[in-house]
Design goal:
Elements: E1 4-7, E2 10-18, E3 25-34, E4 40-45, E5 50-52, H1 56-70, E6 76-82, H2 92-108, H3 114-120, H4 129-136, E7 139-142, E8 145-146, E9 169-173, E10 179-186, H5 195-204, H6 209-228, H7 232-241, H8 246-253, H9 257-268, E11 273-276, E12 283-288, H10 290-306, E13 311-317, E14 324-327
Parallel strand pairs: 5-6
Antiparallel strand pairs: 1-4, 1-14, 2-3, 3-7, 3-8, 4-6, 7-9, 10-12, 10-13, 11-12
């Protein structure tokens, strides 16, 4: 046996696209891969099954799911060296699941793909962004799932309750090195997840055709061209605009008021665009270069102090490569 090291990215999920379903498909989404934060794990031989480090409970669940699927005896140690905060909107669960599964395939000599592992680990049933972020990074557009009787999905469900496979990737682009995201995790109640998320999908879906049409047009005619033309101004404006459309609008309305306030404040204080990732509470702002990122970070920390909220603020480049896997 060898030692395996895996370092994952994290991700911002900008929005789901179609929670209407009239065209026979649902979900779809856009998002971007971040250099940090990320899970760092080591897997090595051991006389018994041991999991150490922050997030070990979830890591153990994922490892046991893998062992059960392949019928393996887990004589290994998993060491978690670094982590992604859970239930804040950075895609922590999918990255850890794929990191664990990928490392175990290397340890046990199993030949498979990331997409097959995602199915085994039951990830990507609504959004394909997290799986694609692990695979290859960058900006990602996924095509959702077939919808209707005997299709991949028969109802509107969040990933945790869906057996659908990871969505196909329609487009993947590397973003410029100078396009940076300032990320804020305000010190408020963690994101909506689990049964609460299930109830929200059931209550608010389907989304109106007009809303889906409007969002699709912005993605096709504003977001994608701005990436190809490396136009950070238009890209940022489009990110801000989609916060008030479709399911993303509902996600923000269900959050604490400080989230919506932060989005507007970031745009007023130097960000080209801003929004909330997934169900939040993570808020992001897009800036050009390290200097502007540091300047905006300082302003945000002051803002959070004035509001007596506090939180974690950091800046990061886009990860255009995906996860790193090394064998020793």
């Amino acid at each position: 046996m060898v030692k395996i090291f895996v370092e994952t990215p994290s991700r911002l999920h900008f929005t789901l696209i179609d929670l209407n379903g009239e065209l026979g498909r649902v979900d779809g989404g856009i998002g971007v891969t971040l250099e940090k934060p990320g899970w760092k794990i080591e897997v090595l031989p051991s006389k018994k099954f041991v999991v150490e480090g922050l997030g070990k409970e979830l890591a153990k669940i994922f490892a046991e799911k893998f062992f059960m699927y392949y019928g393996l005896k887990p004589d290994i140690k998993i060491k978690i060296l670094d982590s992604i905060p859970q239930h804040v909107g950075l895609g922590s669960g999918t990255q850890l699941a794929l990191a664990i599964a990928t490392s175990l395939t290397k340890i046990f000599g199993i030949k498979t793909t990331i997409r097959e592992l995602a199915k085994i680990m039951e990830r990507g049933g609504t959004s394909g962004i997290g799986v694609a972020a692990f695979e290859g990074g960058g900006f990602i557009l996924d095509g959702g799932h077939s919808f209707g009787e005997k299709k991949q999905k028969q109802s509107f469900l969040p990933s945790h309750f869906s057996n659908a496979p990871p969505a196909p990737i329609l487009a993947r682009y590397s973003l410029p090195e100078n396009w940076m995201f300032v990320v804020v995790i305000p010190n408020i109640q963690r994101s909506i997840h689990g049964l609460e998320e299930f109830k929200i999908f059931k209550t608010y879906c389907p989304i109106s055709t007009d809303e889906v049409n409007k969002l699709s047009r912005i993605i096709l005619m504003k977001i994608l061209p701005s990436i190809v033309e490396k136009n950070i101004v238009d890209f940022g404006k489009a990110l801000t605009e989609i916060q008030n459309i479709g399911f993303k609008k509902i996600e923000i309305q269900l959050q604490k008021s400080i989230v919506k306030e932060l989005i507007g404040w970031m745009v007023e204080n130097g960000a080209y665009g801003a929004g909330m990732s997934s169900f939040g509470p993570v808020v992001y702002g897009l800036v050009d270069g390290t200097h502007k990122a540091e300047k905006l970070k300082d302003k945000i920390n002051q803002f959070l102090d004035e509001k007596n909220i506090g939180g974690k603020v950091f800046s990061t480049k886009v990860n255009n490569k995906g996860a790193i896997v090394k064998e020793f």
